[in-house]
Amino acid sequence: MSGVAVHRVVEGPGDGPVVVFSNSIGSDHRMWAPQVAPLVERGYRVVRYDTRGHGASPVPHGPYELADLGGDVLALLDDLGVEQAHFVGLSLGGMTGMWLGVHAPERVRSLTLCCTSAKLGPPQGWADRAKLVRAEGTAAIAEAGVGRWVTPAYAQAHPDEIAYLRAMVADTPDEGYAACCGVIERMDQLADLPKITAPTLVISGADDPATPPDPHGKLIAKGIPGARLEVVASAAHLGNYEQPEEFTRLILERITEAA
After folding, report:
1. Alpha-carbon distance 259 to 247, whole Å?
2. Domain count, the chain
3. What are the tens digits of pLDDT across the range 206-215?
4. Which residue of 76, 98, 141, 245 lies most exposed, with the fewest beta carbons within 10 A?
5. A Gene Ontology MF term for this entry (predicted)?
């Protein structure tokens, strides 16, 4: 495990409780834009970062493992002088959060795990997607990816947002995306869930085709002691973006209770 210096955007008061936001595969820190102002207004120090291989972060040679992504977060916290933070992650970001909860519990004040999974198969599907991206680039999977991110109703009502999200996927470095596919291909955290001691909230989108609440959200909430599951209506995989008010309300509720 060796941490890389990931790109980060830090907003809010320097002395506020720290909330770290971790992006999904194929996105970057901008996916969390709807959550920034409401948290900053309440005195939180909001840290958004780009997972390695995404956005403006380095794209080190692969393969990557989940421990690498978790190590990057620990290096980020060390660089910012933060001993402990609330952690909010969606999809790949949520997988990183679970790893931190198991392997670095002293650094995690609370966990909010959004639209994610502790084991997301089949492995061959991720291997095939990585192969496609290496051959044709992330633009080849942008339309299908965003099709999982939002519901058809949202896509029809917000064509400009759909174009923005597709560009975000297409701008993701090919090798970074493919190497993170490998992380998900090999990930299985189900047996480790009972080791997580941080106060945990699991949020699922009711219409998420990638990580539906049953079984994914239910398995995580059942496996982590004291965790609870909230299912948000009219939300697909990028639920925080499609239903920002409800996701923000739930995130604030979790971090406020943990404080």
Report:
1. 18
2. 1
3. 999 999 999 9
4. 245
5. 3-oxoadipate enol-lactonase activity
Asked if omega into 215 is within 30° of 0 (cis), the reply is: yes
Report which secondary-structure segment, H or E, holds 113. Answer: strand 108-114
Residue type, 69: L
How does 27-47 read in b/e, with b if 16+ C-beta sit within 10 Å? bbbebbeebbebbbeeebbbb
Q: Which two tokens stand for residue 142?
A: 């942008």
pLDDT in tens, 218-240: 999 999 999 999 999 999 999 99
Please indicate, yes or no, if residue 156 is contained in any of the structural domains. Answer: yes
CATH of the domain at 199: 3.40.50.1820
In the block, which residue shows the tokens 């809010």? 12
In-domain check, residue 115: yes
Q: Which is nearest to 50 in space by CA: 20, 78, 79? A: 20
**Nearest in space to 36 (alpha carbons), one of 230, 204, 252, 236:** 252
Domain boundaries, position 18 = 8-258
